[in-house]
Amino acid sequence: MISLRRSGLLAVTLPGLLLLAACGSNPSADQTSTPTASAPADSAQTKSAAMPTSAPFGKTTDGTEVQLFTLANANGVRATITNYGGTLTSLLVPDKDGKMGDVILGFDNVSGYQSPEFLKAGPYFGALIGRYGNRIKGGKFSLEGKAYTLAKNNGPNTLHGGLKGFDKVVWQAEPGSATDGQSLKLTYVSKDGEEGYPGTLTVAVVYTLTADNALKIDYTATTDKATVLNLTNHAYFNLNHGAGKDVLNHEVTLPADRYTVVDATLIPTGELKPVKGTPFDFTTPHAIGERIAQVPGGYDHNWVLNTATGEHAAATVYDPATGRTLEVTTDQPGIQFYTGNFLDGTLKGKGGTVYGKHAGFCLETQHFPDSPNQPTFPSTELKPGATFHSVSTYKFGVRK
Ligand code: GLA
């Protein structure tokens, strides 16, 4: 059974708690990468109320108005999140000289996330992923003796929840402020049978921007029937965004001695292979580009983290050009390290930036792909009466 905790959300959702730190001062932003949509964060409301601000982010193709919320801290760090797909659209963090820059790939309005080109490319920029992150072989699995067939959207397989995953739905949003920072609680009820999954799944995700420049993502879910789930966030990072065309010079460390070997359709074979002596060995820092040519297609694999439960390190990244660092922690057993291999320059994002191959990398904290069909992998089953709870944290810093 995946990690359980029955009262995990209380600490971050109690209303009325005032954020101690003042926020909302305008950082010396890198104009080339400052998201225009974050402008409302400069309003008097943010400065006085210490609550996230919101602004219209456009209408979805079915006419629903969605919002963009800006979370800020006293260091001038800002995260913008829309309730369409629970998508993280920008994150402004300082470099080694204190200059702010946006380290997230994304668009200026909701239509960017719904354009035919975006849907065809399917990169899932910044979105919350569910009900099941990554692939399920043949779009089929059995649970408690019953066979289920899912919507297939990736060749023979189901990827990231199916045709209309959690990345493509409108979440109910509730801005708040907790002792550790401004937060946004997003809630979604996934119906019994949605995309083929059993059980009504009630999901709450709380994003919190902390005083120490971390974006914390707290996931909770309950179900009324046995089901499977694998929740994650699909942010693409480029710590030199606005200046760096790709992330090949970023240095990555993954505390993982093994990875899950995949077949031609990126489904795990079940083998957990030692990384030692292979281009998958990131137990010590390596530039992404150093050995990527030896990996057909580029990195798009699940690493088996050396620690599987409790809060543990999942990845660290360092960009020598800007000095920015990213530390990822999680309580999940795996991490999908994906190097934007399918980006090909057809998508133009914020401020007209063209997203070419390897323009960003993803660090998706998760259970292993296709776990419902792999009895030796940690279980992704959730039963009625139990509460799934998981926290992953993306913390930014600098190295001088
Ligand atoms: C995950 C998958 C990749 C790709 C991306 C989205 O990381 O493993 O193969 O589908 O999502 O483009």
What coarse outline follows from CA principal-axis ratios?
A: globular
> Mean of residue pLDDT?
89
What is the rounded distance between the termini?
Answer: 42 Å
Q: Approximately how much helix is present in the residues? A: under 10%
Key attributes of the depicted protein:
400 residues; mainly beta; nine-stranded antiparallel β-sheet; five-stranded antiparallel β-sheet; 3 helices; disordered N terminus; binds alpha-D-galactopyranose
Q: How is the topology of this model organized?
A:
Blueprint: H1 10-13, H2 44-49, E1 53-59, E2 65-72, E3 78-82, E4 87-94, E5 100-102, H3 116-121, E6 128-129, E7 135-136, E8 140-143, E9 146-149, E10 158-159, E11 172-178, E12 181-190, E13 201-210, E14 214-223, E15 227-228, E16 232-233, E17 251-253, E18 258-262, E19 268-274, E20 286-287, E21 300-304, E22 312-318, E23 324-330, E24 334-338, E25 347-348, E26 354-355, E27 362-366, E28 381-382, E29 388-398
Antiparallel strand pairs: 1-2, 2-3, 3-4, 4-5, 6-16, 7-10, 8-9, 11-12, 12-13, 13-14, 14-29, 15-28, 17-20, 17-22, 18-19, 18-21, 21-24, 22-23, 23-29, 24-27, 25-26
